[in-house]
């Protein structure tokens, strides 16, 4: 009798992931405006800090209009205020802003803008627009969240930069207002709910440790770049643990190629 081969699948197919529920446009706009307004107000702090570092009103406004990445702007004027070399300060700000390029790679696939629109959208690729965009359940909501966040934040950031630079003396010490902490606080509030798995939480925690331990030792901007090493380190450790667990569970039955026990005698 001919040998029969069992072609039935050995395991069940994984069930599809449940679709994320649609989000009303009003909710997307509300969240996006909340982020844009909250972070945009911290432009006051940059305007005051920049004026205190010796930059003119035109130079301060040009930074917000053309650079538009708060952390890099603060790093630049902070280094200048500390007496650093302008080229060194610019280099630190540049490397700190490199993270936006990685954001752009992710958002390009999510937003799906045409090639003609991408150069203009790229100018709004920052921490806050990325967080709001990735929190949306579908492309339509993602585009709406990105646009509203980028537009409101860009407009308010530049307005408050101008007002902060004009009224630097009247506003006083930015540390007393706490405006310098507004941007990172909002971003952390958006990021925290997205850390759902243990791997994500461990990577985020390790990144914080790297920043806090190297901040007093390295130039401005470098600790943030160094914190990116947390992700590959955690992934490597996770991969080794998975391979070790897989090897421990791998049991190979003894027998010949057709699955008969090794002690079975072959018949003539």
From TrEMBL:
Q: Which InterPro entries match?
A: Brnchd-chn_aa_trnsp_permease (IPR011606)
Can you say where in the cell this protein is located? Cell membrane
User: Pfam families, per this entry?
Assistant: AzlC
**Main location class:** membrane
Residue ranges annotated as compositionally biased, kind Polar residues, are 246-255
Q: Does the keyword Oxidoreductase apply?
A: no
In what way does this protein cross or attach to the membrane? Multi-pass membrane protein
Region annotated Disordered sits at: 1-24, 242-268
Source taxon at top rank? Bacteria
Q: Which residues cross the membrane?
A: 32-55, 144-165, 224-240
Keywords from UniProt, A to Z, are: Cell membrane, Membrane, Transmembrane, Transmembrane helix, Transport
Q: Does the keyword Transmembrane helix apply?
A: yes
Q: Which PANTHER family match?
A: INNER MEMBRANE PROTEIN YGAZ
Q: What is this protein called?
A: AzlC family ABC transporter permease
User: Which organism is this entry from?
Assistant: Streptomyces siderophoricus
């Amino acid at each position: 009798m001919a040998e029969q081969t069992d072609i039935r699948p050995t395991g069940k197919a994984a069930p599809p992931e449940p679709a994320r529920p649609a989000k009303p446009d009003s909710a997307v706009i509300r969240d996006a405006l909340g982020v844009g307004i909250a972070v945009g107000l911290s432009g006051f702090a940059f305007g005051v800090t920049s004026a205190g570092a010796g930059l003119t009103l035109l130079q301060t406004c040009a930074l917000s209009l053309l650079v538009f990445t708060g952390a890099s702007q603060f790093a630049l004027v902070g280094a200048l205020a500390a007496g650093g070399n302008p080229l060194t300060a610019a280099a630190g700000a540049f490397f700190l802003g490199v993270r936006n390029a990685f954001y752009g790679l992710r958002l390009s696939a999510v937003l799906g803008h045409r090639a003609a629109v991408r150069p203009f959208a790229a100018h709004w690729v920052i921490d806050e627009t990325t967080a709001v965009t990735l929190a949306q359940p579908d492309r339509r909501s993602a585009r709406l969240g990105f646009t509203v966040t980028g537009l409101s934040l860009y407009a308010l950031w530049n307005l408050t930069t101008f007002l902060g630079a004009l009224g630097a003396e009247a506003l006083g010490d930015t540390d007393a207002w706490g405006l310098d902490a507004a941007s990172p606080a909002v971003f952390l509030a958006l990021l925290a709910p997205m850390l759902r798995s243990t791997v994500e939480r461990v990577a985020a925690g390790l990144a914080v440790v790297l920043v806090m331990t190297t901040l007093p030792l390295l130039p401005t901007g470098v600790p943030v770049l160094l914190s990116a090493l947390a992700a590959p380190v955690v992934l490597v450790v996770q991969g080794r643990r998975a391979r070790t667990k897989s090897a421990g569970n791998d049991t190979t039955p003894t027998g010949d190629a057709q699955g008969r026990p090794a002690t079975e005698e072959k018949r003539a």
